[in-house]
Design goal:
By secondary structure, the protein is mainly alpha-helical. 52% of the residues lie in helices and 9% in strands. The chain is elongated and about 55 Å long.
Amino acid sequence: MNHSTQSTEPRAHPANLALRLLCALYDALPLLALWFVAATAALAFSGGGLEVRRPGDRLLVQLLVLLVTAAYFVLSWVRGGQTVGMRPWRLRVVRADGAPLDTAHAILRFCVALLSLGACGIGLLWCLVDRDRRAWHDIAAGTLLVRIDKAG
């Protein structure tokens, strides 16, 4: 008897910059909703007297927006390796050894991604020259953004 030995594991390939940007565009939608929730929470914390021209009030809004953004990405990456924006293109964040991210790696990835974007996006553009298409946050956290082939 001759048995075929085909792997049932889907294959993964490093994601390119265009897919990263499409994911970011999709992720903007749930993030906008979360930012509205954060602003509403800031309004509640201030007793309805929120004035973003006051440094303390502006800082409160910025801190809450940052926290909900971090929570969105970190929780998404730890619980399944995907954000809402990554799902349509079958992208997933994994550690370099293929294992799922833990909370520490996800937090590090998020923090370096902020720095990467703050440096005029150079850290994100780094995936254009990296052999494995890694951005700075992938290199720092030891992660890869991969595209999973469709199951055949």
